[in-house]
C-alpha cells in the first residue's frame, strides 16, 4: 500500500510517497500554496505539521496527523509537557530513537532552530527553540529603519563584513552557528553520562552548519543526511503496521501508521563527521 506523506513546515511542505520499503520525494511546495486539490484521490495521507491553518484548510480531507499522543515508536514523552510539543519535534525525536544510538540530540536548523534530546533509555528530555537564520534576517529588517532583509547563502562567511549586507550575513550566519553550538553544549548534561550522545543535524540550514568548524567538545558524533537535510518526512517516514522497528526488534503495536525516519534520507548511510 502506498501512503502520501507530507511534512508541513512554516515555510515549505515536503511531500513524498512511501511504498513500503522506500520513499519517492516529490517537489517541495511553499506551505502557503499547499491546497486540497493538489492531493491525489484515493491515497491514504499522513502529515506532520506545526501550522494550525493547515488543519483548517484541509478540514474536509481525511489526513492522519502525527502527534505525541498517537505515535507508537516507543519514545517516552511523560517527562515533559507534551501538550505543547509540536509534531515536527515529535517526529525528530522518534527518528532519533529509531535510527541512531542513544542518547542523542536532533539539531533542526529550519525556520526555527530546535533541539530534541532523547536519553539512553528512550526518554524525551526536552530541548530548545530559537530563531533560525530567516527569522533573524526578517527581524533585523522589520525592527530597523535601514537594514535590508538579505538573501540566503549556503557559504558560511569567513571574515567580518565590509559592507552592510556582508556584515549582516556574518553576524546572522556565524551567530546561528554559534547559537547552535552553545545550545548543544548546554544540552549535554540532559543526555546522561552513560555514553557520548549522537548528534543528528537536520533542516534547511544544515549546509551552513556543515561548513562550520567542528569542535572536539565531547558532544559525540555528528551526522548529516547525504541527500536531504531533513530528519523528520523527510523529516519522517510513515510506514504501515507491516513494518518492523529496527532498534527494538518488535512489530508495531497496531496496523495504524507509525513513524520512522528511514529510506529517503539513506540515513543509515549518512555522512559521518
Give a concise summary.
The chain is of the alpha/beta class. It contains five helices and 14 strands.
Structure write-up:
This protein is α/β, with parallel strands linked by helices. The protein is 22% helix and 23% strand. It contains five helices and 14 strands. The chain has helices at residues 52-57, 87-99, 133-143, 164-187, 206-210; strands at 3-8, 12-18, 23-25, 29-30, 45-49, 63-65, 104-109, 112-118, 124-131, 198-202, 222-224, 237-239, 258-260, 271-272. Strands 1, 2, 3, 4, 5 and 6 form a six-stranded mixed sheet that branches. It has a six-stranded mixed sheet with strand order 9-8-7-10-11-14, sandwiched between helices. Strand 1 and strand 2 (12-18) form a beta hairpin. It is globular and about 55 Å long. The protein starts with a strand and ends with a strand. Mean pLDDT is 75; it is low at 215-222 and 224-273.
Shape type: globular
Strand content: 15-25%
Find the count of extended strands (DSSP E, 2+ residues): 14
- Reading the helices and strands in chain order gives EEEEEHEHEEEHHEHEEEE
Number of helices: 5
How large, in whole angstroms, is the Cα Rg?
Answer: 19 Å
Roughly how much helix do the residues carry, as a percent range? 10-25%
Rounded mean pLDDT is 75
- Tell me the span between the first and last alpha carbons: 36 Å
- Spans of at least 5 consecutive residues with low confidence: 215-222, 224-273
Q: Which assembly state applies to the chains in this document? A: single chain
The major pleated sheet works out as: 6 strands, mixed
Q: Which structural class best describes the helix and strand composition?
A: alpha/beta
